[in-house]
UniProtKB/TrEMBL annotation:
It comes from the Bacteria. Residues 1-76 form the 2Fe-2S ferredoxin-type domain. The keyword Iron applies. SUPFAM superfamilies: 2Fe-2S ferredoxin-like, CO dehydrogenase ISP C-domain like. CDD domains: fer2. It is an enzyme of class 1 (oxidoreductase). This is Isoquinoline 1-oxidoreductase. Its EC number is 1.3.99.16. It holds the Pfam family Fer2.
C-alpha cells in the first residue's frame, strides 16, 4: 500500500509503485482535471503540485509521492474561487481548454514563489506548459490579474 496526501486528504492506494501518478489520480482516484497530454513531460497538461512544487505527473510514479502532499486542480479550490480560476474566466483564457488545468497549476506555483512577477518572469516560469491554441497573452494577463488578488 502507498500512502500520500491528495488535495488535503490522506489516501492509500494498492497500485504497483511504478504506476504513473497521472493514471492513479485519473483512473483509480477519479480526479479527471489533470490531463494526459503527451506522456513525455513536453506539454504540461498533467501538472500537479508535489509538496508545493509543479511536477509533471506523467513522469512520476505513485511510489515517488509516498508520504508527500499532492495537489491537483481539484484541490486548488472546490468552488473555482481561487484568484487564478477567476482570472482565467475574466480573461477568457481557454479556447479548447485541454491545457488549462496544467497552466493554472503552474501559475499557482509561480504566485506562491513570487507574488508579484513581471511579464518576463511569468513567461519564463510558464514556458514548460504549452498551449496549442496559443492563448499565451491571455494566460499572462490572467496571471497578472490573479497576482493583484493573491
Amino acid at each position: 500500500m502507498i500512502n500520500f496526501t491528495l488535495n488535503g486528504r490522506s489516501v492509500e492506494v494498492d497500485n504497483p509503485e511504478d504506476e504513473l501518478l497521472l493514471l492513479v489520480i485519473r483512473d483509480e482516484l477519479g480526479l479527471k482535471g489533470t490531463k494526459y497530454g503527451c506522456g513525455a513531460a513536453m506539454c504540461g497538461a498533467c501538472t500537479v503540485h508535489v509538496d508545493g512544487e509543479p511536477e509533471f505527473s506523467c513522469q512520476l510514479s505513485v511510489g515517488d509521492v509516498a508520504g508527500y502532499e499532492v495537489t491537483t486542480i481539484e484541490g486548488l479550490s472546490e468552488d473555482a474561487s481561487h484568484p487564478l480560476q477567476k482570472a482565467w474566466i475574466d480573461q477568457q483564457v481557454p479556447q479548447c481548454g485541454y491545457c488549462q488545468s496544467g497552466q493554472i497549476m503552474r501559475a499557482a506555483a509561480l504566485l506562491s514563489e513570487n507574488p508579484d512577477p513581471s511579464r518576463a518572469e511569468i513567461a519564463e516560469y510558464m514556458a514548460p506548459n504549452l498551449c496549442r491554441c496559443g492563448t499565451y497573452n491571455r494566460i499572462f494577463k490572467a496571471v497578472e490579474q490573479a497576482a493583484q488578488e493573491v
